[in-house]
Amino acid sequence: MRRRRLSAAAGALAVLGLWAADALAQEPVTPAPGPQAVTLGEAIARAREGNALLKAARADVQAKEGQMRLARSYFIPNLNFTENYSRTNNPVYVFMGKLTQANFTYQDFAIQSLNNPEPLTNWQSKVELTFPLFTGGKLKAAYEASKLGVEAASSTATFAETSLVKGVTEAFYGSLLARQAVGVLQEAVKTAQAHLQQVEAMHNEGLVLDSDLLRIRVFAADMAQQASARAADADVARAYLAYAMGTDGDVQPAGDFTAPSDPLPTLEEAQQSALEKRGDLKAMSMQAQQALRGVTMAKADYLPQVGVLASYEQDTMAWSPSAWGDNWLLGVQLRIPIFDGGARAGRMETARAQETQVQQALLDLQQKIKVEVKSAWLKAGAAAERVAVTTDSEAQAREAQRIVALRYQEGMATVAELLDADTALTAASLTRSQAIHDEIVERARLAWAMGK
Q1: DSSP assignment, residue 135?
Q2: Are 82 and 128 within 8 A, CB to CB?
Q3: Where do the structural domains in the chain lie, given as residue ranges?
Q4: pLDDT tens digit string along 222-269?
Q5: Is it true that domain 36-76+135-302+342-449 has CATH number 3.90.220.20?
Q6: How far apart are CA 81 and CA 21, in angstroms?
Q7: Least C-beta-crowded within 10 Å: which of 86, 170, 175, 206?
């Protein structure tokens, strides 16, 4: 009986298992999404939209535009309306309040009323206009400085964008180089495995020594280990590409890994372009002009300041049309600075020192840019020469490897020669890929250094 129950239970489980397997087989399996392929143009476009540092640079332009609007507002009359409410029994304020309300009577001259007045409620409505007439050029210099600040921020944002393009290009082709290295090592692994099978077959026939078989097994394992390491490098390179693009997704570069064919500009043309177009140089030049406006503003503190004031006021006790008074005021103020304990002299000294500081920084940046252009230009030319040399070297190494493999098969070469040929081909392929990468990247750095 017990065996029958176990048998029935086992049968039921088997039927259930077959049903579940059939259901799973019929249900489609959604493959895991792989990395998104992007071209260089797509990567740059997405970086321009999503890169945080570029967004910050553009926000600084908006901040500087706000400062310029603030500086421009000082040329426009300042109009304010104020409404004040007060209730007091202060004799002075009660006396003045009744006068401004046009509510003063003979009884208010009584000594008792003057010394101990009844509390007075006053609603004061006032419109006031102020406008500077002469500031010694301080307001004009401040506005010009703020305008230069907008231009400097715009140039900085442009330079940030060109730097972003350079960074994305470097990350893009760095990822391509890592993927190319993976391909080279995978090819080396396949070659090593093929040679291992060949040596094992020859070993089984007693044609090679045990030491040769062990040596090629170690070589094949080392190639597999290097391929695994290169695959990890490729994953890291893709992560840097995603970071440069300002995205958290998994991306991979899509494009050809070929050396550029267009000629380089002359060194003089490249340096001249950099001095004319570099955004950071333009920003520094604007900052130098800003510093000069700062000296003008400091000088204005030594000059008289003239302004005009106009106001209209209404005062009432209870918003009654029959119980309110009004008055107006028009005046001009002249302010002549005489002594301030050295504050103006300190501001002038600071402004002049800042002007000198920015001017020297501008000269240093000009020299630095020339060096950056020359460095990128020389490295790009050298990389182009390496591409030509390494292309021939790779072809020769591949042919040498083919010949040695045939000679080894015929027993005319040792396993050491075979492994050396494999190693030389792998090294030549990696070196050529590195040379192509270096030329592309150095050209991107040259374009960045030229302000493109």
Answers
A1: -
A2: yes
A3: 36-76+135-302+342-449, 81-134+306-336
A4: 889 988 998 999 899 999 999 988 888 888 898 777 888 889 999 999
A5: no
A6: 82
A7: 206
